[in-house]
Amino acid sequence: MADTLHPRCLKVLVVEDDNEMASFIEKVLEDAGHEVECARDGATGLARARAEDFDALVVDRMLPEKDGLTLIREFRDAGGTTPALFLSALGDVQNKVQGLKAGAEDYLGKPFVPAELAARVEALGRRTTSEPQVTTLRAGDLEMNLLTRKVTRSGKKMDLQPREFRLLEYLMRHAGQVVTRTMLLEKVWDYNFDPQTNVIDVHVSRLRAKIDKDFPEPLLQTVRGAGYRLQG
Amino acid sequence: MKLPAHWPAWLTFERMAKLPAKIAGQFPRLPEDIRFPIPERVRRAMPVFVRTTTFKLALLYSLMIAAFSGALLAYLYYSTVYYIRVESERRITVEFEQLANAYYTGGMERLSQSVFERMTLSGSPFYYYLEDTSGRKIAGHFPRLPDDPPESGMKTVYFDFELPQSDGSKTLRPAAGRIVRLRDNGGALMVAFDTAQQTVIVDRIQSAILVAAPVALILSLFGGVLITRGAARRAEELAKTAEAVIGGELSRRVPVRGTGDEFDRLAQRINAMLDQIGKLVEASQNTGNAIAHDLRSPLTRLRNRLEIALAKPMTEEAASTTLGETVEEVDRVLDTFNAILRLARLDAGTEGLRVRMDLSEVAEELAELFDPACEEGGLSFRSQITRNQLVLGDRELIGQAISNLIDNAVKYTPQGGAICLSVTRGPEAMIDLTVLDTGPGIPEVERPRVIERFHRLDSARTQPGSGLGLSLVQSVAELHGGELVLADGNGPKDCPGLKATLRLPRA
Fold it and tell me: Which residue from A191, A195, A197 is facing B396, i.e. has the nearest CB?
């Protein structure tokens, strides 16, 4: 992850009771350049989340004192807005729906690839800063108008299929961050399963062929072992 | 806790406990459940039969019948006896009226004459006695009045008298009569009748009732047992089945008689419940088998690799390669593990929502998702999707199933081949989603086995994958009330291709 550029350093609260898992998460996030604090049970986690202004919460579901779902629910009921991610061994679709309903923004099943966690936490941290009412997205000299659905790079018009448009939109909203293949399948195609073949890679490389062709500076980069990043 | 002094003695703790709410006290409830009206000691001593519902119902039934028939017999008794009394009263009244008539028209002389006449009448049920003011007998059956006549008006008397028989002996007979003080000259007249006959009838009725009541009680008890035994036997069948299931005989079912009554409906529900439990048990057994079968060997391999790595010193490069391979192996194990869990949940039927969804839409999305990857892999991809084919299903699961079918086709179809995804109307009320490839196909004898858990064709051992892809498609199909049909494709005999059809019921 040495080549990751950090859009900014996030202050992350990790609520996890398993020592080894907690230090692993801590290491992954610190390697990605974030500041991490750990809480070992639900009650402490909730107290810490309320006491301090974190950029993101990473919460296990099965916790002593207070389970993760209750923690997030109570945190939201009390008006807490810090974006949260569930990190849980209960990883199927129904569990995800439960987690999102409780008020979390994202859900990741254990075991996870370190880069996936880092990418998702970064995407979370970004949410709080993104403006809700944007009509134009920009990344370098690439420009996307969300109303007219026109995409240009240095003034040159790009001709994109609807799905390519949505793919690029997601990448642009998370410009500068690593996004993983599963994140793309989840957010762009709205499927949660894991296709065994490299379907997403092919879509990304087709998009890349369109936006980076004829330009010396490639915007859409592959991050080895993790996913993709659109240069911000 | 202290009871207020004015509380009646019968309001004991036991009785208080029968009241639903706590009245007072330091404890949330009584330490022992003594709400049962029969004390525990007595209840334990009762034979098992007495505690059964059959017995209780039969008892209740017979008590009710006994109460009804008792009321009926009582009514019968009173109405009969009362009628007899009233009837004789009426006849005496008539008799008096006639005699009074004689008295008023002809005075004492005419009355005594009338009494004499009546006394000689054969077949008359009445007995007479007439005396004058001084108490001297004028006429009559009896030597004297059984009781002093009243000063005025009328008086009813009951007495016994001696009736002379034809053989000269005398029998004592009961009689009832009325004595009337005559007006003006003040004599007294008594008309009585023999109540022996009446007493016999009343006695008859009484004895009949005394015999009938216990017979009715016994019969009603018998009937009660007969009626409730049917219901009790069905309940017993339920209990026996439950016992057998608890004892491990999961295939046992409650017999259904086809009468459509409450017991049949209950039996059907219980059988459905047992079916579901059976499914869950089987699913968990399958999962156990699957874990033993398919996770043990990769974990053993992993362990061996780590043992070797530990045993001898390695160069940094070799160590890095070994670790990389180890991570890959662990990932595979985790993938398999996830697939097993997913299958278990599918088998248990707890996975997935069932909503009306457009299968064509999902197929189109997946065609769009897979198309570029196929082309990149040197395969031509084509889709023929009939629009608006609705099914009741879970989009995620069906998407995964279609993805598995296409994945499978991509894996086994050699370069230059073709894959076709189609959605068409199937037979009857079904919709067919077909993935057709130009690969080697699956020989007919192998087809049932590839759907089995963890079965992979020998030729496929070198390909990555858990061997659970088609099993998952099959499970998804079953969950949606459909099926997975495997057939030869359109290719030549030596390489026919595979035509995998996910057949789902139309919504």
Answer: A191
